[in-house]
Design a protein that fits this description.
The protein is an all-alpha fold. The protein has three domains: 140 residues, no CATH class; 81 residues; 113 residues, Serine Threonine Protein Phosphatase 5, Tetratricopeptide repeat (Alpha Horseshoe), CATH 1.25.40. The longest helix is centred in the middle third of the chain and has 28 residues.
Length: 470
């Protein structure tokens, strides 16, 4: 919103008030007598050679100069409020909308509403014309006003644009009517969004939703209406699964249409949260699920202690489980192998809320595992990786777990090593760099040699041979 629009509106309104010109001042506007071309109105001071010598004094009858700057927004609002019957007076769209914008921009949404509603009423005709003609046009693309030859400028009033659109429709030019009507609605949509925001700020959520939807009916990808409607549904209709679905779809549409907007990351996050609440059957059930997630994280996923979700093997101070008949110790049931979790446990871990604190704790545990590897303390390193693996099965963790099992000489080592190398050989390579940086140059060379034998194509691309040279 620019103050110039409000100033223009104020000037137009004040022009209708009784004249405040000094006594003897020549009349202005329609009351002024016609003057010959180039001639000054009667009574106007003369210019040029016939003008009396200037003494620095103002011409006789000129209003006194106050030296004051133009009125600021607060002073302008005071002048407007001193005008009797201003709200009830009939106004053009431009005047009504500029007054509404002035009040809205100065933190007075309740006062803005009356003028924003008046502006919307002035635009009802062109809106109805657009919807009817767009329905008739069908799925065809809407031309721009320039392409349709509407002849509009930035100063063309909405009412004039409506007349042009209506004339096109009368002549059967549906595409032209749609283009001209859509151009006329462009300033109207801005006012409608402000109208919805004002309703929201005055706690009329139902009314705000209706106006946001009215904007989206004309402009389905309007950023403010998309985000505002979705946020309102999410905040006020959290137990309505259908409303949550609409909120999620709205946030997703915002992210797709306005990927570079500052609110895009927030829209993506809210879309995910709305989807989770939708799948849970409502906000209350979803919050209960989140509370349970926090409980699991607090009681079962404390990485400073052994997780009860994992089997306690000999290295964690428990007794070794007897292997099934026919299976030697260190087989698939060996507690020193990669962790094997039940489907229920895996589901619980997938649902754990990933907080920054948890992520930091996971990273700290991986760092500790790598330090233990570099010092040859494989049993302790395995304990660290077993804790992290279910929650962060990325290339770095897979590489560390695989090299730990290789160091321990476990039967599962080759299988886990193969998974790590095939999924992310660069992470295995980086583990060698980490071991070398932590003082285990011999271990790093052994890792790189095994990696070169397991993934020759990667070894050639990454020039592993250079790392193996003395």
């Amino acid at each position: 919103m620019t103050l110039s629009l409000a100033l223009t509106a104020t000037a137009a309104l004040l022009a209708a008030e009784p004249s405040s010109l000094p006594a003897g001042h020549p009349p202005l506007g329609a009351e002024a007598p016609a003057a010959a071309p180039g001639a000054m109105p009667p009574g106007h001071p003369t210019f040029g050679a016939g003008a009396p010598p200037s003494t620095g004094a103002l011409p006789q009858g000129h209003p006194p100069m106050t030296g004051r700057a133009p009125p600021n927004a607060e002073e302008l609002l005071q002048q407007l409020e001193g005008m009797q019957g201003l709200r009830e007076r009939d106004k053009t769209f431009e005047i009504a909308s500029s007054l509404g914008k002035l009040y809205y921009a100065n933190g007075r949404p309740a006062d803005a509403l009356a003028y924003l509603v008046q502006a919307g009423d002035k635009a009802k005709g062109v809106r109805e014309l657009y919807i009817a003609q767009k329905k008739k046009l069908g799925a065809g693309a809407v031309k721009s006003a320039a392409e349709a030859g509407c002849g509009f400028s930035a100063q063309t009033p909405v009412e004039e644009m409506q007349k042009v659109a209506a004339e096109r429709a009368k002549k059967g030019d549906t595409a032209g009517a749609v283009a001209c009507a859509r151009a006329a609605l462009e300033p109207v949509l801005d006012v409608e969004v402000m109208h919805a925001n004002s309703l929201l700020l005055t706690h009329d959520t139902r009314g705000a939703l209706a106006v946001y939807e009215r904007v989206l009916e004309v402009a389905p990808s309007n950023a403010d209406a998309l985000f505002g409607r979705s946020a309102l549904l999410y905040e006020t209709r959290g137990e309505d699964v259908k409303a949550l679905r609409s909120a999620r779809e709205g946030f997703e549409a915002f992210s797709a249409a306005h990927a570079d907007a500052p609110r895009a990351p927030l829209a993506q996050k809210l879309a995910r949260m709305a989807g989770e609440a939708e799948r849970a059957g409502g906000m209350t059930k979803w919050k209960a699920t989140r509370a349970e997630d926090r409980r699991i994280r607090a009681t079962k996923l404390d990485l400073q202690h052994q997780s009860p979700l994992m089997a306690r093997g000999p290295m964690q101070g428990g007794a070794a489980a007897a292997p099934p008949p026919g299976m030697a110790p260190g087989g698939a049931g060996d507690a020193t192998s990669a962790p094997t979790l039940s489907p229920e446990t895996m589901q619980a871990m997938q649902n754990v809320e990933r907080t920054p604190e948890l992520e930091a704790q996971l990273t700290e545990t991986v760092d500790r595992g790598e330090a233990l590897l570099a010092s040859g303390r494989y049993d302790e390193a395995l304990a660290a990786y077993r804790q992290v693996m279910p929650l962060r099965p990325d290339g770095r963790v897979k590489a560390g777990l695989a090299w730990t099992l290789v160091g321990l000489g476990k039967p599962t080592a080759d299988r886990v090593w193969g998974v790590a190398v095939s999924s992310d050989p660069a992470a295995v390579d980086q583990l060698g760099e980490t071991l070398k940086a932590k003082g285990d140059a011999r271990g790093a060379r052994a890792l790189w040699a095994k990696l070169a034998a397991s993934a020759p194509d990667y070894a050639a691309r990454a020039s592993l041979q250079a790392k193996l040279e003395p």
